Amino acid sequence: MLRLHKSFVLVGFSLILLTPGLAFGQGTIYFSSNHSGNWELWSIRPDGADLRQLTRTAEDEHSPAVSPDGKEILFVDGRRTLWIMKTDGSDRKEIPLPKGIYAQPAWSPDGREIAFVKYIVLPEDRSEIWMMRREGDRWGEPKRLSPFPPMRLFPCYAPDGSKLLFTEFRRDERLGAIEEIGVFDFAQKAFKLITHDRADSFKGVWSPTGDEIAYTSNKSGNYDVWVISLKDGRQRQLTRDPAYDGEPTWSPDGREIAFVSTRSGSKELWVMSATGDLPRQLTKTGKACKEPFWGK
Predict the structure, then answer these.
(1) In the predicted structure, residue 6 carries a pLDDT above the cut 80
(2) CB atoms within 10 A of CB 236
(3) What is the value of pTM for the model shown?
(4) Tens-digit pLDDT profile for residues 20-70
(5) Partners of 210 in the beta sheet?
(6) How far apart are CA 155 and CA 142, in angstroms?
(7) For range 209-216, the mean pLDDT
(8) Residue 7 lies in a domain
């Protein structure tokens, strides 16, 4: 990456103007992009600086999930196996799992457990959420959390580790297949839906304080970023652009949200305040970016 001036950063051969004096969030945003040909893992600072390509293989890599201490990344490769590596791209290791199709890894807040999705395609398409403990470099036996049916995807631990978000596929008599956001309570061992949008509402992520959830939904007729309060159930629509907006991820301090948008013509990373104000384009690859994860 070539830096021309404190207010200008080259990203993907295109120039992005950064507003002088604007305060940017802390941490690093990790994401997947096909800018270099196939899907690889990248990282970038919230101010658009320090763009790095973390993987360079012939296979796709995607679905990054950064450990709570900011030192490691879980991800999925083109063979649908789970991997772990340092956040600088070094020390890459495959996670020992039985042969299968795996996706969407997530860390527990203490970094000692992961959740992930296991796909089964025969004799019918199905998905289950599994969990596995970790002690140092040793992994425990995987255990199934959510049996099929229904199909549940996109696990995400609460900041205090007491609950797990998920997306549930449901059958609506009028609309057909829809998606809703739900939560699993570990103490009560109970699944509960928290959205009843009768739409595609999916990929929920907890705010750092644990009192709000950001997610993607088309309940307004277009895919946008929404937030639901767990205190009173109130929902807020954060984006209203006619383009696709989705895949939100909170900044570590909870003041900003990064997301994917097609409002510039291709799927790029954008950042806005947690209230939906001051949206700014972060990448300009001209290809596609997806699955941002805002880590430390």
Answers:
(1) no
(2) 14
(3) 0.91
(4) 444 577 999 999 999 888 999 999 999 999 999 999 999 999 999 999 999
(5) none
(6) 15
(7) 98
(8) no
How many domains does the structure of the chain reveal? Answer: 1
Domain that holds residue 75: 25-295
Reference 195, options 179, 206, 176; nearest CA is 179
Instruction: Check: CB of residue 181 under 8 Å from CB of residue 170.
Output: no
Is residue 9 a part of any domain in this protein? no
What CATH number does the domain containing 119 carry? 2.120.10.30
Q: Do 230 and 220 form a contact (C-beta atoms < 8 A)?
A: no
Task: Find residue 9's DSSP bridge partners.
Answer: 3, 16
Residue type, 158: A
Tokens standing for 27?
């941490």
Of all residues in the chain, the percent with pLDDT exceeding 70 is: 92
Structure tokens at 51: 């763009």
Helix-then-strand count for the chain, H and E? 0, 28
Do the domain assignments include residue 3? no
Q: Note whether residue 272 is domain-resident.
A: yes
